[in-house]
């Protein structure tokens, strides 16, 4: 199943178009298919998700090209029931955007799992946000610079209330995505013993990528001020539905 929502964005406020309804039988290709693979699970029956989104760019106050990029995701269904749980997300960044993970300390997921986020080294936090759950409640979101096997770089998105530590690998996009994007952060939600159709879902998710450490910016955009930048989020759900929310934003 497929749904593509177009979002018109500015550096301050995102204007969201009426979302397309997912259509059976179609799908969007994975933007970063050559990184870590999620264990196979068969699709399950469930609702059709509707994704909406917005993005803001702000200067990070550090280096000349440094920016913070904030994603807002809102999720609902065509029938009003709880959205199907996610399998995977890919945050898509304009070709002008580059990451600077080597200049920042890292935090290993084992540190967070054993000792909590407060034990991560100073300077390793490179983002933050908030998760709002469909079944009630919300949580802060913490983002940490990290390393993975085989030399991969990326971030950990930690949701303290649930204990989730979500690995996001930084990968080059492929195929037609290269027309607009350079890098993607590929987030795989782990398989659990909870049946897919019973897994909880968020209805709102906010996350900002960007930080300054010793004068260095974690995220940089080399586009000129006023340039139009591409942004997007690709999603896959336990029903097999995929969605792609895309738009452009003006570089501040």
What shape does the CA trace take? Answer: globular
User: Could you say how many structural domains there are in total?
Assistant: 1
User: Whole-Å distance between the termini?
Assistant: 36 Å
Instruction: From the alpha carbons, calculate the radius of gyration and give it in angstroms.
Output: 17 Å
Q: How are helices and strands ordered from N to C? A: EEEEEEHEEEEEEEEEEE
The main β sheet shows up as: 13 strands, mixed
* Secondary structure tally, helices: 1
Averaged pLDDT:
91
Q: Would you count the extended β strands for me?
A: 17
Keywords: Signal
Structure description:
- The protein has one helix at residues 109-115, and strands spanning 2-9, 14-16, 49-59, 67-77, 86-94, 97-99, 125-133, 138-147, 153-159, 164-172, 181-188, 202-209, 212-213, 216-217, 219-221, 228-237, 242-250.
- It has 252 residues and is an all-beta fold.
- It has one domain (2-35, 47-250).
- It has a 13-stranded mixed beta sheet with strand order 2-1-17-16-5-11-10-9-8-7-12-4-3.
- The longest helix has 7 residues, at 109-115.
- The model is unreliable at 5-25 (pLDDT under 50).
- Residues 1-24 form the signal peptide.
């Amino acid at each position: 199943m497929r749904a593509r929502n177009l979002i018109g964005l500015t550096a301050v406020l995102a204007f969201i178009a009426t979302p397309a309804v997912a259509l059976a039988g179609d799908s969007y290709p994975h933007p970063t298919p050559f990184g870590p693979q999620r264990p196979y699970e068969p699709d399950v029956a469930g609702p059709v998700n509707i994704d909406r989104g917005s993005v803001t760019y702000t200067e990070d106050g550090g280096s000349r090209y440094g920016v913070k990029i904030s994603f807002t995701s809102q999720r609902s269904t065509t029938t009003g029931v709880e959205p199907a749980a996610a399998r995977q997300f890919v945050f898509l960044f304009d070709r002008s955007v580059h990451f600077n993970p080597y200049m920042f300390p890292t935090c290993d997921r084992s540190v967070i799992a054993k000792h909590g986020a407060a034990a991560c080294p100073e300077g390793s936090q490179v983002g933050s946000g908030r998760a709002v759950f469909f079944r009630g409640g919300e949580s802060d979101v913490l983002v940490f610079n990290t390393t993975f096997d085989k030399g991969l770089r990326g971030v950990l998105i930690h949701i303290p209330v649930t204990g989730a530590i979500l690995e996001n690998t930084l990968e080059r996009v492929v195929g037609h995505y290269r027309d607009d994007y350079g890098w993607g952060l590929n987030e795989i939600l782990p398989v659990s013993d909870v049946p897919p159709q019973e897994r909880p879902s968020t209805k709102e998710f906010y996350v900002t990528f960007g930080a300054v450490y010793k004068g260095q910016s974690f995220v940089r955009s080399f586009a000129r001020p006023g340039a139009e930048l591409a942004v997007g989020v690709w999603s896959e759900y336990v029903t097999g539905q995929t969605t792609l929310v895309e738009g452009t934003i003006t570089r501040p």
